[in-house]
Amino acid sequence: MTRVSVWPLKTVAFIILAAAGLSPLVACVRRPAEPTWAKFGGDPGQGAILVGRFSCGACHEIAGVQGANGKVGPPLSTFADRTMIAGVLPNTPENLVRWLRHPQAVVPGNAMPDVGLSDSQARDVAAYLYRGR
Amino acid sequence: MSSRTREAIEHFFSSPRGPLTWLVGVACGFAAMGAGALVVIEGGIFNATASTPHIPAVALAAHTAFIRSVEVRAKGITPPARFTPVEVTAGFRDYDASCASCHGAPGVSNARWAHAMTPPPPYLEDAARRWRPEELYWIVGQGVKMTAMPAWREVRSDGQVWDLVAFLEALPYLTAADYARMRATAANTTAGASRPPSPNPQGLSRSD
Predict the structure, then answer these.
(1) In contact, B60 and B124? CB cutoff 8 Å
(2) Chain A contact for B109 (CB, 8 A cutoff)
(3) For the whole model, what pTM was predicted?
(4) ipTM, 2 dp
(5) Of the partner residues B63, B116, B125, the one whose CB lies closest to the CB of residue A111
C-alpha cells in the first residue's frame, strides 16, 4: 500500500526537478546569445517616440507604430531576428547604432538618409527595435 | 419584403416601447455625445501641443478622414496622360527648394525642425504608390488642415502643381545618387540666378 502512494510522488518530484533543470537550456535554444536592450543602455519608450518623430514609418513597416506602413525599405517589426543590417552589417547593437546614425557612410547612395540621430537617440531607437529581447 | 419582416416592422411600430422610446433614446445618446465633446473642448482636455503625439484613436480618425477627403474630392480630375522630363525637372527644382526641408528626398534627411512637428511630415518616396496622380495634385494644391501642409495652389500656378506631381511620380524611380546628380545639375545651370518659381499663374512652366 505504501509503495503505491510513494512511487507517484517520487515520479512527480523527478519530473518537476528535471523540468526546472532543463528550462534554462530551453531558454537558451529559443533565445540565442543576444544582448538585451537593457544591458545596451537604450530606452525603448523614448525610442518609440523617436521612431514617430523621425518619420521612420513612412518607409518602414513597424508593428506597434501607428501609420508605420511604408514599403520603401524592409519591415522592422521583427528586427531582433534579422541576421544582417542593410545586407552588409551583422545585426549587433553596436552595428545597429552605427547604421541608424550614418546609413550613408555604411552604404553610400542608399535611400535611407542620415537623419541626424544622436548616439543616445540611436540607442533608444535600437532598444525599441530590439524590444522584448 | 417577406411577411415575417412586415410583421416585425408592424410589431415595432405598434408596441408600447416603439418608435418614440427609440427616438428619445437616440436623442439622449446624441445629447450625451455633444455634452462630452463640449467638456473636452471647453475644458481644454484636448492637448493641442505639437510636443505630444496624437492619441492613437484621434490619429486614426484624423488620418482616415484625410484619406477619404482626398479620395472623394480628387475624383473627376483628369491627370495628363503622361509627364514630360521637362515637367519632372521643373517639379524637382520646386520640390528641392520648397518641399525637401519637410519631406526629405532619396538619401536626404528632412530638416531637424521637421522632427518637431506633429504629425511629422512623411517622406514621399512611395507617395506615387499610395496615391493616384490626381490625388497628389489635390493634396499638393489644396494642402492638409492641422498638419502645416500649405495649399500650394495659392502660391503656384496650376501647371506648377502638376510639375510637382510629375516629380512625385518620378520619385520612386530615383536613387539617392540620381537626386544628388539632379541637385548638382540644377546648381550648375542656375549658378548665381537661383530664385523660387514665379507664383504668377501666367508664368506657366508647363509645356502645354
Answers:
(1) no
(2) yes
(3) 0.76
(4) 0.72
(5) B125
